């Protein structure tokens, strides 16, 4: 079973590498993807068969320990039980269907290879989440799924709206990842290493002896619920999922109709022993699901596209799953998940054909065709909405068109305060910032040398500078170099904060900076080459389309972006967790500030990547011409017009 568990992880990675290295034509990509899918299916079926032969019990496998430092351990754990078995079976079936479907649906599409690379990366992260044995491994797969979703929403990179929606969805992911990041850290603190999914049932098996106090468990449950709500588009984050349908229909089917949208349910199922024994946390999950169902039922009626309607239908069904989980119906949730995943995948895949068929019917029928006005109208059922007064119906229609104002609520609560704080920081000139920073460092150095100050007292200014650098980069749009340097400075100050708090954490801080500093410097070099001869400040809101004009540099920028945001391909991913671990022995607000800064940095760096890599080259040239004409002297233009023939 151990070999098969590893094969479920490495087969998607093998398919990704083979397509990247040898996928020079559609035919070769199709062959590689088909054989990789069959191999993955064989491994999954063999694994589930062996698991069934062993009695359907939970099976845990410790592969190796990535990092060990004192009391801190980061093992790579895999765990298989009925929850992961149900999700793994759904992954195989739906992924196989999508790969087969895309061989024809994306024929002669410009991003054919890019799509298959991203979809294999998605399955790699998804299998890692489904087979994870702890929150740390789950968080690694969670990040891979998030970045794959980000890339596929912006798949049609010539259009502005998919790019904006990709950043919107990624921002929600990152904000809600605070919950999973802090949840993984907090579980280490209060469960004292017993945070393996295989051990949770034993830890909470005795109601009289709990592994932690109720307040700490409630806080941990709250963190987990925030992460689940963001990934599954539950209240109040319902609005981003219909906008994520801007990507190709197959990616919408596998992500937002079938698999990715149910990962929040998977997280709650996995952590059920943590939050399930308290009435208040069950009530919280139930209320979130109920509010989501109401919002989805209203908003679905006002959607103008079939994919938007299916998106809200899927959101509503996940809301019902939250309610079922709160009521303790775990087996029903698994059956509900399988039925909803297969149904929504089918609906999304056939939606283009349905729309085309209805357009042909409409074109062939008389213009006065009215479904409710014909003889069959008496058989059509009346909805609850039809029985309401007209004023109330109109009010609900407007409310539904605005999607219950949830985006405005989230923006006013999370986005706008950070932008305002960043604008206030950026209003202070760079020279004044350098003078203040130099003064603080000089005073701190003199205090340390004279013995009047201790190292811990400088950690406060360092963590404050980290937070200010993060919000400054978040709200900065006029210069990509300022954004990139602000993100890098924030990460450096985060490492300095931990070093000042604990000198013995120096090696762990070095591990974190070993992933951050090379990515930062590589990004600066790539940005210098990409923007050579261009004035970014003239048109800061235009997309530069360098993924097409300078594909090599754009790819390097993408990898430096991943390293700078501590993606699981960099030592900074482990270092990020280590910084929170070392900060936990001090004030909790330092841990919260560091986690929030990491999330904000990810959004700011993603915006830089989108601004430079996405867009249409023709529009970029047109923007440059318009900017040059606007900057040209007026007398010279008049002279040209006078001498022009005709």
From TrEMBL:
One of its GO terms (cellular component) is membrane. It comes from Methylogaea oryzae. The chain crosses the membrane at residues 6-23, 35-56, 76-102, 114-131, 137-155, 208-230, 251-269, 275-298, 310-329, 434-452, 458-476, 483-500, 512-531, 552-574, 586-610. Residues 68-116 form the NADH-Ubiquinone oxidoreductase (complex I) chain 5 N-terminal domain. One of its GO terms (molecular function) is NADH dehydrogenase activity. It is a multi-pass membrane protein. This is NADH-quinone oxidoreductase subunit E. Residues 133-353 form the NADH:quinone oxidoreductase/Mrp antiporter transmembrane domain. It is found in: Endomembrane system; Membrane. One of its GO terms (biological process) is ATP synthesis coupled electron transport. PANTHER family: NADH-UBIQUINONE OXIDOREDUCTASE CHAIN 5. Its main location: membrane. Keywords: Membrane, Transmembrane, Transmembrane helix.
